[in-house]
Specification:
By secondary structure, the protein is α+β, with helices and mostly antiparallel strands. The chain contains 2 helices and 7 strands, in the order βββββααββ.
């Protein structure tokens, strides 16, 4: 290292020569959370990187396929809920009609019990299917996270000192 300092008169110069070394304030070995085949490495030694910059990618073929299956299951669960809601509306209307007819002695108590049971069973099926939708949403979120885990990013801004992987 060399340093020059000018004095008060402006003509005086003192030069200081020193030797030393530079050490990083922070260092990190960057790796992925999951194991897999490296398909792309986007950095070279000595390259400056920004925080969050993509450094490498792993093969995500299977993860993408599982994500698509999870999304299809979510859509199917949502459609089942819509269908069951329509059936519940019909079952509740049938129960109300049968209740009125039973009050007028036109329908039997057995008919009323059957209509009530159908409405309650449909309501329970709807609750289960709504929980299935929640499970399917979480499954999609899980596969989204696993897809994101196939992308290796820089944890902070810095300089690449070693490149230990190849596609």
């Amino acid at each position: 290292l060399a340093r020059a300092v000018s004095g008060s008169s402006g003509s005086e110069r003192t030069v200081l020569n020193a030797s030393g070394y530079v050490t990083a304030r922070r260092a990190a070995t960057v790796s992925s959370k999951v194991t897999g085949k490296v398909v792309e490495v986007l950095i070279e030694e000595g390259m400056a990187v920004k925080a969050g910059q993509v450094l490498a990618r792993l093969d995500d073929t299977n993860v993408r396929a599982n994500l698509e299956v999870a999304r299809a299951q979510l859509e199917s669960a949502r459609m089942a809920v819509a269908e069951t809601r329509a059936q519940l509306t019909q079952a509740e209307q049938e129960f109300r009609r049968t209740s009125e007819l039973t009050k007028q002695n036109i329908a039997s108590q057995s008919d009323l019990d059957r209509a009530e049971a159908e409405a309650k069973a449909t309501e329970a099926r709807l609750e289960r299917q709504e929980r299935d939708v929640t499970v399917a949403q979480r499954q999609v979120a899980l596969w989204d996270q696993q897809l994101d885990d196939t992308i290796i990013r820089a944890p902070f801004a810095g300089v690449v000192t070693s490149k230990d992987s190849q596609p």
